[in-house]
Design a protein that fits this description.
The structure holds 2 protein chains of 2 kinds. By secondary structure, chain A is α+β, with helices and mostly antiparallel strands. In chain A, 39% of the residues lie in helices and 18% in strands. Chain A has an 8-stranded mixed β-sheet with strand order 6-7-5-9-8-13-14-15. In chain A, strands 10-11-12 form a 3-stranded antiparallel β-sheet. The chains are: A alpha+beta, B alpha/beta.
Chain lengths: 533, 356
């Protein structure tokens, strides 16, 4: 398709509308048209018109009715012209969709706001880099006013993907967009964005650079999240416009292309739904998973080992890089405690659903009396913050570094590959151990990394207490109560106590198939919040 | 060669590393496993079979080595086994994926690339468990500080305690620019560990002369120096103690050494990995263990320039105290700030001081 991709949010109220545009091209409809010297193809009485530029197709997927009235204003007179579909100068092969506000690039930054002419005839205000919040709240529509909510409300039948019905694709995608918005807690998000924008506008913001950095980072990340969904929505509407246009034009090639694009979007939308579950600030981070055996001796240490193995194979399946940081083996079997590191996108986002106490019921192989035992293992998940985040400063003098070594005279007498290091952060008493690297040096570095993440997490919790909005999600990350029960005897079942989701094959779960539990948990705790209209 | 000059003279019959005639020949260093090309291929299933076999062999050890001579227990050996796999496999991360492959049953004959043959892996792990051959010789390298150093039979495996010498030198050099721009000597360099550690601190500002009597050590140290691209900073010289350093007498900014310091009588009771496999000439310090330490102390005054620094690793408290006494009594006017420094385990390990 053409390089001219046109986006235009439809605004119910046009007193103040904004659109995205490239840094250097702040374009109002007026500007774009005059700049590109298009021969006034806008219809004055229909807002659904075609602009034509040689070798490019533009569909003006119009101004909303609100703007329509203002278009009738004489100052917009150069919008008068042939009705849509008239390609007087056009080569039939070259058509492109355009919408009210013309943007020359897809990846846009900076925002322009346009005050449509009302009292002041033809007066157009352009304002650069204003907040995105109004944009988020605005609703997008097709040229004939169809919105995502509208599509869902029309209850178009959703057929199988193989059925090439555009309405069915569109309905499926629209549903996904609603799910995505709900999961992202769209309303909260926009409120938060507005709040951040207000803070960003304060002149004394940078008096506290750390705080300012945090605010502008969060603002930036929210803006890009919202933008992404908006773009997806826009894409859907554009394709619908295209299909309608193609039908009117009888352009079968264009229709099938758009249909293909819709199908592609439909396939992507499921993935986007998943991603939307992970829209927290730290969700995309790598993380540590720690498992600690509960009371109950060897049986629960064996259980802790099974749990950590479950996470190892789950993580490997997901394609994360897994490394064992620290392991304290049990006296007879299993582990007392272990820490693994998961590196990869969204490791923390997924793994955080596993925080809590996991319970096992089985006939213990360590009990000669073959009695049924219940044991517990606690799971903690710690995000490894990226470089961009503010991390806690650690003073070298606050650390006590202990190295494990066997007794004896040491030095040349002993040859050991054991080089475990334990670091104690004296002011907080927080410790970290690493033993799986091949030199003390590397173990120290690795333990320091764990310590850093623990201190970061502590700091986040502290911050969260000051910021009520985030408290809810963060309390879920601390050690929680029992979340799941794994029964191997007298029947076989794994059941999540938070969602009641259950699986009758414990072996597959212990082999790392826990995505079902994770996704159900997210759906349950996010979808229940009636955030989306 | 006169008796006072070096480890080779105390060289015992247990491991004929070189003879007088061989010492003139350059020894070709072995390439550590992890640096070898992955030219061997084996089916994933066979590698897993080997891994299972090795794990079983390892767990049969339990704590018997610990009880016998304070050797490794099975959980440490298991960790070593994973490291061996890490070094031997071309793509180590692939090894943990096959779980899912087995399930769909399609990729049973998937091949993996190895840096040594599967047969070799069997015999290597047998050597580790049955002969107690040190893990570092098995894989041909030792992770020391942030370095990965090539090691092989005939060269002492650098100990974690010795890492401290680099920290000591780093502190000295950061407070005294002049010393950082001078010539340092690592006497009895072995794998070149200390020389490389110091060479990386000094950079192009200074120079390190690394000496060793053993041609194996000279060749391994040179290999390691090359691997870290420090040829312009570190020069490896063959010879005993200060003998190859006559041209810089009185000019050295620093002397560091981890000389053989185990009393001869203790050698037979050493942990099997050490006593049976590491070169005796790098361990045996004579009857009291101080033969070389005393020579180093006595020679240091002449070799160091005024203000020069020295650090020697010793067998422990007894050695440290004796050496400090010895220097205060015999060379009090040559040195100042004589001190004992503990190792990470809190044992008195190093004697340090400055030339007046």
């Amino acid at each position: 398709m053409s390089s001219l991709i046109l986006k235009r949010p439809r605004y119910r109220s046009l007193r103040f509308c904004q659109t995205t545009c490239s840094n250097t091209h702040l374009l109002s409809p007026l500007a774009s048209i005059s700049e590109t010297q298009i021969k006034s193809p806008y219809s004055s009485n229909s807002y659904n018109s075609l602009l034509f530029i040689p070798n490019q197709k533009i569909l003006v997927s119009g101004f909303s009715s609100g703007l329509l009235e203002s278009i009738k204003d004489p100052t917009w007179s150069h919008f008068s012209g042939p009705k849509h579909g008239q390609f007087s100068d056009a080569d039939e092969k070259d058509k492109v969709l355009a919408s009210g506000f013309v943007v020359l690039k897809r990846n846009v930054s900076g925002f322009a706001s346009v005050l449509p002419p009302r009292g002041d005839k033809g007066l157009v205000y352009l304002r650069c880099s204003c907040s995105y919040s109004t944009q988020a709240a605005a609703e997008l529509s097709t040229s004939d006013g169809l919105t995502v909510d509208g599509i869902v409300a029309s209850n178009w039948t959703i057929f199988d993907e193989s059925e090439g019905d555009w309405k069915s694709h569109a309905a499926a995608i629209a549903q996904s967009i609603q799910v995505i918005k709900r999961r992202m807690q769209w309303k909260k998000l926009t409120v938060r964005l507005e709040l951040l924008a207000v803070q960003l506008d304060k002149p004394d913001l940078w008096d506290d650079p750390v705080n300012a950095g945090r605010i502008s980072r969060e603002h930036g990340s929210l803006v890009s999240k919202i933008k992404e969904v908006k773009a997806f929505e826009q894409q859907l509407l554009e394709h619908i416009d295209m299909i309608k246009l193609a039908r009117e034009e009888g352009d079968a090639e264009m229709e099938s292309e758009s249909l293909k694009a819709l199908l592609e979007m439909r396939r992507n939308s499921k993935e986007k739904e998943l991603e939307a579950l992970l829209s927290g600030e730290q969700d995309s981070c790598s993380c540590y998973i720690e498992v600690q055996a509960g009371a109950g001796g060897t049986e629960s240490m064996d259980w802790a080992k099974m749990v950590i193995e479950m996470y190892k194979s789950w993580a490997q399946r997901r394609g994360y890089k897994v490394s064992l940081v620290d392991e304290m083996p049990g006296d007879i079997a299993g582990i007392k405690r272990a820490t693994i590191k998961l590196e990869g996108e969204y490791a923390f986002g997924y793994a955080k659903a596993e925080v809590g106490v996991h319970r096992l019921v089985r006939i213990s192989p360590f009990d000669s009396g073959k009695r049924r035992h219940t044991s517990f293992a606690a799971v903690a998940v710690i995000p490894i913050l990226g470089d961009g985040s503010t991390r806690v400063q650690i003073n070298e003098s606050d650390l006590r570094i202990e190295r494990f070594r066997s007794g004896g005279p040491g030095g040349q007498h002993a040859n050991t590959t054991e080089s475990a290091v334990r670091i104690v952060h004296i002011p907080t008493g927080i410790t970290a151990t690493s033993q799986n690297e091949r030199s003390q040096h590397m173990n120290k570095a690795s333990a320091l990394e764990v310590l850093q993440s623990r201190l970061d997490q502590l700091e986040m919790t502290r911050q969260a207490q000051m910021n009520a909005q985030h408290t809810q999600s963060l309390t879920e990350i601390s050690w929680g109560n029992q979340i799941r029960t794994y029964v191997l005897h007298p029947y076989r079942m794994v059941k999540d106590l938070r969602t009641n989701y259950e699986v009758s094959d414990p072996d597959s779960v212990l082999d790392g198939e826990i995505d079902g539990f994770i996704l159900n948990y997210f759906s349950a705790c996010l979808d229940k919040e009636d955030d989306y209209p | 060669m006169n008796l006072g000059l070096g480890r080779a003279c105390l060289f015992s019959s247990c491991r004929p590393i070189f003879s007088a005639s061989a010492s003139l020949r350059t020894v070709k260093p072995q390439i550590p496993l992890f640096l070898r090309p992955p030219t061997h291929s084996a089916s994933l299933l066979d590698v897993k079979k080997w891994h299972e076999w090795a794990k079983n062999l390892t767990s049969s050890v339990g704590s018997s080595f610990v009880e016998f001579d304070n050797g490794p227990d099975s959980s440490l050996l298991c960790r070593e086994l994973n490291w061996l796999l890490e070094d031997a496999l071309e793509n180590h991360s692939s090894f943990h994926f096959p779980l899912s492959c087995e399930r769909d049953g399609s990729d049973h004959d998937e091949n993996v690339l190895l840096r040594t043959s599967l047969d070799d892996l069997y015999s290597l792990w047998k050597q580790r468990i049955e002969e107690r051959r040190p893990f570092q010789y098995i894989v041909g390298c030792e992770h020391w500080r942030d370095l990965v150093l090539s090691v092989q039979e005939g060269v002492l495996i650098p100990r974690p305690e010795t890492e401290k010498i680099i920290d000591l030198v780093g502190d000295i050099v950061s407070n005294n620019e002049e010393l950082g721009q001078g010539i340092w000597a690592d006497v009895g360099t072995g794998s070149g560990a200390i020389a490389i550690g110091i060479g990386r601190i000094l950079g192009s500002h200074g120079r390190v002369l690394a000496t060793d009597l053993s041609p194996v050590a000279v060749s391994v140290a040179s290999f390691n120096v090359q691997r870290y691209g420090l040829q312009s900073v570190i020069e490896v010289r063959q010879g005993s103690l200060f003998e190859p350093l006559k041209d810089v007498e009185g000019e050295l900014s620093g002397i560091v050494s981890n000389p053989p310091y185990i009393p001869s009588a203790h050698i037979s009771g050493l942990q099997a990995e050490v006593g049976r496999h590491e070169p005796r000439i790098a361990l045996d310090g004579g009857a009291g263990g101080m033969d070389f330490l005393l020579q180093l102390c006595n020679g240091a005054a002449a070799m160091l320039k005024p203000g020069g620094f020295f650090a020697l690793e010793t067998n422990g408290e007894e050695h440290c105290k004796f050496l400090i006494d010895h220097m205060q009594n015999n060379a009090a006017r040559s040195f100042h700030n004589l001190n004992i420094v503990n190792d990470f385990a809190g044992m008195q390990r190093f004697v340090i001081g400055f030339r007046q």
